[in-house]
């Protein structure tokens, strides 16, 4: 009899990575649904297109690297990167801009750094930041006007045609500045009341955006409930953003109000789906809190005093830089030790 | 109910315990042959004290410890010693080790036993000796000699004695069934240990998935102050450090032992064994083993003689050999796979799982770590398994050690939950092994260096001593000489002065002799010249010389008069030159006069 020789433990009950990624995608579906309801077909088309490009470029680069293509593709991580980009890009962004974002995310930010688990930066955000800097017009003028899908939104065919045309600027009547953009640029010369009459704010809020953010918040809570992510990073991101807004932005005639910070822009998507990418984030509980708080503070700083109306991508990337450093200084205290061993070996031993 | 604490992390694996709790513990009977490893405990292996061919009785000591830490081995039944040699033993490596092979004679004849009626009348050390000679080592897994554990280092007072009835590993029910069926024996053994240690608190911790055991023990403990504490079921609550934290809220210091914080844990089976050796005088010759898994038809718990081969035991449980895919000794979380069913049951064997392929399937292929942190969430030691893995894989052992690799208890919770199916524990074992090897080599290198330095130092010292001696010798010689000199000086100061004068006069005489010789030679030469001059006097030459010197004198006199007229600086010089030339003229005149005289007188004689 030849028995199986295996090292302990012999029992396993893991939720495989592929399933984890599948759950992340499922949890993002409410957000995608609400985006589609309030802003038309653009996001849905982008998501499908980005996932397709992501899978194709992942397959291509894996083949070049001599890795098992189907085995790795099945982990669904490329699909998640595509999904996140599709959710964050403007609705009418030209197809080739999203393709550039996805290909650079998968090929450069992920696979050239060694593939899944070895990338220091969040791939989706690398792609996003790249196209935001490279194609600012396409990335700022293509946000859809909030229009209910069943009411006045451009039809599926028209949207697809607009995206496929490759034009940097879409049909004028379909697009509108985002609430954060509008507020940022108008508040310097107007009062809050004057700014808020713009249709992008709806009833003094961020029209459509508030529901999108609520949906992503819901999806994020599902992820926490499923123990796919821990609460630390989202809570720290939102907590820091709220704290910064209350401390510096209480005057609505000068800075965007807290409600806009939380419910307009990519706040919830960023806090629950993007900042929580474990590969590029800090890893201990304490580390996650610092990492998340850093992202929250940076989002506020860039939105309020920087050049960009939204700042999730840059904030996440900047904190990705800091994650290894944070990790060195935030290990947990191990059982039986008086305190945690911070820093590098040879220094500060407890 | 006393206060409970929680340990961080932990998992809730499927228990599979009901498989083996359906029927009471059965005696597995006497197999055809028993294989008794000489080392079933931590420490020195026992040495055989029987010869091949000897007949031994049940309970007779057949191997003993002559030096070092360890416990003896006893014959589990009467029979003939068939052989002493290397046979497969339970070990993850599948290695062989020294065993005594006993062929039972079926009579199961006991040797003489010496039960103790009242152990309280004995000295505590005597009781410890009884426990040692009963061959008792910890039956929970590590196999540490119980008598040594029961005597912690002198300054360590045990406040809390814990009996570990958690049995948190899935499948295993040996302790559970023992507690249910032999609660009184468990308590009796615990009382002996408590009497030895005199703790303030004595507590039995049981997971809440064993209500029958808890009830039985509660009954057995009535009238005592032993606490029965039911704890929440969570793996690995039965880990010594975790159980201590649950029951006392204290943590065993890293690198220390529970006695450092006044706590001691003992195993249920060990308590039974201690009770037996004290009250019945029977040494440790059998233990309860759970035989379970889908590949056996009659799973359950067996009272098994030590040395019973696993295949015999599996037969007792109705094994379907072709169904076994994986044979695990111990639990599914921390047990190890066996390569053969020929290995015997030993003092630490608590469970045999004959698992089918469906039951414990092969894990899927390893994927990349995405640092999801599930492992850190479940780690009961609050480590960062994802970072340890990263450093172990990169062979950055220093960093792994810095993140407290050696605090890992290898419970397997991290691997259990890993979504990328990474055999994390295996990586940690590898890293620990490498670090141990490095340390051993470092130690060796350090010792070699110390030896080399010591030798170098010794050589240097010897050289210095040599030099010193040489110098001393030189000094001594110089001093002796100086002394001699001084003695000579003081003895004959006058004598020496005379000597000196004599030496000087000798030198002078030599010089005079040399001078005399040279003047004589010069005389001879000048005599010869004079003869030549006498033979051929050159009047013409002499006249010419005279004329020349006279001319020179005249020109010099003119120059002198001119200089005198001009008041020149060289007047004195010129005057000296004139007088010189005047002498020359005189000498030339006299030489000419001499030559004319000789010419006038000598020609006759020479012709």
Short account of what is shown:
Chain A is mainly α and 350 residues long.
Structure in words:
The complex is a heterodimer of chains A (350) and B (607). By secondary structure, chain A is mostly helical. Chain A folds into two domains: 16-170, no CATH class; 177-328, no CATH class. In chain A, 59% of the residues lie in helices and 0% in strands. In chain A, helix 4 (77-88) crosses helix 5 (95-111), helix 5 (95-111) packs across helix 6 (123-134) and helix 12 packs antiparallel against helix 14. Chain A is globular and about 75 Å long. The N and C termini of chain A lie far apart (50 Å). Chain B is an alpha/beta fold and 607 residues long. Chain B has three domains: 18-355, NADH-ubiquinone oxidoreductase 51kDa subunit (Rossmann fold); 364-485, Fumarate Reductase Iron-sulfur Protein, Chain B, domain 2 (Orthogonal Bundle); 539-602. Helix content of chain B is 45%, strand content 14%. Chain B has helices at residues 124-133, 146-149, 174-181, 183-197, 211-220, 240-248, 268-279, 310-316, 374-378, 385-393, 397-402, 413-417, 424-491, 493-535, 539-566, 571-601, 603-606; strands at residues 26-27, 34-37, 47-48, 55-56, 61-64, 73-74, 79-88, 96-104, 160-165, 201-207, 227-231, 263-267, 286-292, 300-305, 326-329, 336-337, 351-355. Chain B has a six-stranded mixed sheet, with helices on both faces. A four-stranded antiparallel sheet of chain B has the order 2-8-7-4, with no helix packed on it. Chain B has a four-stranded parallel sheet with strand order 11-10-9-12, with helices on both faces. In chain B, helix 15 packs antiparallel against helix 16 (571-601). The longest helix of chain B has 68 residues, at 424-491. Residues 603-607 of chain B have low confidence and may be disordered. Chains A and B meet through helix 1 of A and strand 15, strand 16, helix 9, helix 11 and helix 12 of B.
């Amino acid at each position: 009899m030849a028995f199986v020789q295996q090292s302990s433990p012999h029992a396993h009950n893991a939720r495989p990575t592929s399933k984890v990624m599948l759950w992340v995608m499922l949890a993002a579906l409410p957000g995608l649904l609400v985006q589609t309801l309030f802003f038309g077909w653009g996001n849905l088309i982008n998501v499908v297109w980005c996932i397709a490009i992501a899978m194709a470029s992942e397959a291509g680069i894996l083949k070049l690297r001599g890795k098992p293509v189907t085995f790795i593709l099945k982990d669904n991580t490329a699909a998640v990167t595509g999904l996140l980009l599709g959710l964050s890009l403007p609705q009418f962004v030209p197809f080739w801009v999203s393709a550039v974002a996805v290909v650079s995310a998968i090929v450069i930010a992920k696979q050239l750094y060694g593939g899944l688990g070895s990338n220091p930066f969040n791939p989706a955000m690398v792609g996003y930041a790249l196209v935001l800097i490279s194609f600012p017009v396409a990335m700022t003028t293509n946000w859809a006007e909030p229009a209910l899908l069943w009411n006045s939104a451009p039809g599926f065919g028209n949207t697809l045609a607009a995206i496929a045309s490759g034009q940097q600027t879409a049909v004028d009547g379909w697009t509108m500045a985002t609430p954060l953009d509008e507020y940022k640029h108008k508040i310097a010369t107007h009062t809050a009341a004057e700014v808020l009459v713009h249709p992008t704010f709806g009833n003094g809020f961020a029209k459509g955006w508030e529901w999108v953010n609520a949906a992503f918040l819901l999806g994020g809570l599902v992820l926490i409930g499923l123990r796919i992510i821990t609460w630390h990073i989202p809570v720290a991101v939102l907590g820091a953003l709220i704290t910064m807004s209350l401390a510096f932005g209480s005057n609505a005639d000068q800075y965007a109000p807290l409600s806009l910070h939380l419910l307009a822009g990519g706040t919830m998507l960023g806090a629950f789906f993007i900042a929580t990418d474990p590969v590029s984030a800090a890893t201990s509980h304490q580390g996650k809190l610092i990492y998340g708080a850093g992202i929250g503070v940076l989002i506020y700083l860039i939105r309020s005093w920087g050049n960009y109306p939204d700042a999730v991508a840059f904030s996440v990337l900047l904190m990705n830089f800091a994650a290894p450093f944070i990790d060195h200084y935030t290990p947990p205290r191990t059982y039986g030790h008086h305190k945690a061993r911070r820093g590098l070996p040879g220094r500060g031993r407890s | 109910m006393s206060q409970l604490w929680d340990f961080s992390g932990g998992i809730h694996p499927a228990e599979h315990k009901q498989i083996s709790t359906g029927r009471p513990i059965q005696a597995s009977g006497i197999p055809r042959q028993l294989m008794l490893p000489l080392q079933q405990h931590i420490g020195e292996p026992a040495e055989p004290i029987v010869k091949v061919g000897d007949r031994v009785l049940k309970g007779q000591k057949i191997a003993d410890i002559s030096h070092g830490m360890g416990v003896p081995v006893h014959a589990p039944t009467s029979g003939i010693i068939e052989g002493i040699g290397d046979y497969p033993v339970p070990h993850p490596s599948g290695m062989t080790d020294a065993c005594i092979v006993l062929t039972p004679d079926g009579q199961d004849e006991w040797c003489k036993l010496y039960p103790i009626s009242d152990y309280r009348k004995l000295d505590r050390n005597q009781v410890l000796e009884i426990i040692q000679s009963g061959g008792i080592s910890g039956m929970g897994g590590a196999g540490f000699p119980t008598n040594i554990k029961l005597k912690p280092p002198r300054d360590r007072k045990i406040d809390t004695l814990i009996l570990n009835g958690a049995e948190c590993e899935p499948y295993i029910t040996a302790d559970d069934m023992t507690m249910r069926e032999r609660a009184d024996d468990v308590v009796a053994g615990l009382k002996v240990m408590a009497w030895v240690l005199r703790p303030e608190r004595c507590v039995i911790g049981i997971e809440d998935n064993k209500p029958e055991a808890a009830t039985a023990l509660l009954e057995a403990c009535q009238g005592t102050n032993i606490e029965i504490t039911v704890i929440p079921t969570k793996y690995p609550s039965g880990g010594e450090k975790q159980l201590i934290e649950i029951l006392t809220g204290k943590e065993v210091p890293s690198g220390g032992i529970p006695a450092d914080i006044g706590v001691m844990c003992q195993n249920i089976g060990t308590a039974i064994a201690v009770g037996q050796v004290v009250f019945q005088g029977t040494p440790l010759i059998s233990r309860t083993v759970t035989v379970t898994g889908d590949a056996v038809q009659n799973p359950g718990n067996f009272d098994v003689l030590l040395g019973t081969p696993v295949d015999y035991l599996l037969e007792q449980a109705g094994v379907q050999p072709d169904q076994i895919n994986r044979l695990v000794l111990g639990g599914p979380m921390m047990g190890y796979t066996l390569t053969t069913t020929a290995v015997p049951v030993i003092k630490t064997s608590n469970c045999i799982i004959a698992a089918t392929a469906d039951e414990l399937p092969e894990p899927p292929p390893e994927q990349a770590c995405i640092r999801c942190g599930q492992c850190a969430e479940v780690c009961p030691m609050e480590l960062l398994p994802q970072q340890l893995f990263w450093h172990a894989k990169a062979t950055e052992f220093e960093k792994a050690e810095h993140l407290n690799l050696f605090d890992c208890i290898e419970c397997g919770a991290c691997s259990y939950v890993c979504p990328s199916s990474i055999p994390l524990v295996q990586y940690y074992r590898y890293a620990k092994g490498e670090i141990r090897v490095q340390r051993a080599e470092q130690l060796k290198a350090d010792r070699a260096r110390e030896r080399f330095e010591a030798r170098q130092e010794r050589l240097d010292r010897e050289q210095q001593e040599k030099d010193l001696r040489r110098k001393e010798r030189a000094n001594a010689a110089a001093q002796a000489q100086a002394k001699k000199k001084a003695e000579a000086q003081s003895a004959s100061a006058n004598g020496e002065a005379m000597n000196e004068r004599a030496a000087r006069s000798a030198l002078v005489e030599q010089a005079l002799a040399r001078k005399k010789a040279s003047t004589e030679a010069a005389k001879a030469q000048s005599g010869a010249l004079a003869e030549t001059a006498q033979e051929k006097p050159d009047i013409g030459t002499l006249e010419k010389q005279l004329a020349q010197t006279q001319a020179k004198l005249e020109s010099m006199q003119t120059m002198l008069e001119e200089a005198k007229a001009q008041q020149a600086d060289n007047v004195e010089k010129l005057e000296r030159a004139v007088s010189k030339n005047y002498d020359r003229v005189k000498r030339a005149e006299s030489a000419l006069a001499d030559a004319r005289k000789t010419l006038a007188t000598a020609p006759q004689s020479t012709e």
